[in-house]
Structure formats: C-alpha cells, structure tokens
Amino acid sequence: MPPRVLVPLATGCEEMEAVTIIDLLRRAGIEVTVAGLEAGPVLASRGVRLLPDTTLDTVVEASFDLIVLPGGAEGARRLGQDPRLAVLLTRQIAQGRQVAAICAAPSVLAQQGLLNGRWATAYPGFLEPLDIPGLVLDTSAAVVVDGPIITSRGPGTAMDFALFLIEHLTDPATRTQVEDGLQRPAAHRGLPITLP
Description:
Layout: E1 4-9, H1 15-27, E2 31-36, E3 42-43, E4 49-50, E5 54-55, H2 56-59, E6 66-69, H3 73-80, H4 83-94, E7 98-102, H5 106-111, E8 119-120, E9 136-137, E10 143-146, E11 149-152, H6 158-169, H7 172-181, E12 193-194
Parallel strand pairs: 1-2, 1-6, 2-5, 6-7, 7-11, 8-9, 10-12
Antiparallel strand pairs: 3-4, 10-11
Helix pairs in contact: 1-6, 6-7
C-alpha cells in the first residue's frame, strides 16, 4: 500500500509549492489527497486556480502518513485560522506521524506549538517575529528535519523539499527515478538538509 499524504489548500497558497509537491509525490506513486478548506477551486497567490480533490471536511477523520502544508502568506494565514486543520495537525503528531511545511506555512505549525524546542526553517520573516520557545531557526538549509517535523524555505526549495519527502516516504531509488525523469542537473541535486 503506498504512503498516504494530505495536502490542504487555502486561498492565497503559493502555487509553485503546491503543484510541485503534489506532482512529484504522485510521480513517485504516493497517494496524494488535495483538500480545499471549502468546496470548489482555490485561487492561489499568483491567480492560478487549483482544483482540490475534495474538501477538508471529508478527510478530517482520515489517517495519513504525512500532512504537507504549502506556503504563501495568505494561504498560510488561512490554514492557521482553520480549527479542523489544527485538530488534524495535533492528532497527527500525537499519533506518531509526520507533518511538513514550506515557506510561510511553518508558522501554522508554530501556532499549534509544534515547533517548540525544535530546529526548523521557513521563508525569511515568518518565524522570527513569533515567540517560539526553544526554536533553532536554520536559514541555510533547503530542508530541515527534526523528528516528526519537516520544514523548507520557499518556492526555490520546493523541488528539493518534494524530492526529500519522496525519499523519506519511499526509498532513495524512487527519489532517483523521479529526479532522473525531471532531467534535473547534477549541480542542483543534494542541497543542504539539516538533521539535528
């Protein structure tokens, strides 16, 4: 059975991140469910309309191996205000499963106290103003992994983030197969990953 991943989408999400994550994970044979906060298309930050598979209401009781939050300032703000997502995230960690967030979305994890005492990264300016006890902010890594929490910096690291998630959920051979199919130059492979 392939790993199951939930990608929640909110109006104002960063489309480059959302589409890169969804596309690459599906190329790896991972079962990805894209859930909008509401029914219908989601208007992303640059005007692209994305059509989720379902709504968050239909999956709120489901179980996933990983929940991945795309960024975008407005999208992250809306995700952070949704009580259903708060329940999903805290339950995910309580049950020993993982969550991942990129760009502005690590701030959603911070709101739930999930970054307390952890290493993380995010788009510059989104975690610094928050009072997060014990947070070690790594602004040099493309991906930071601390236990069940995986974070990344922004649109420029979205491919590295998605490829890391593939390897993490499957194996190095699957990641290599997907990456080879993308014709990604060797110079772009293996950006820094922090594992505290």
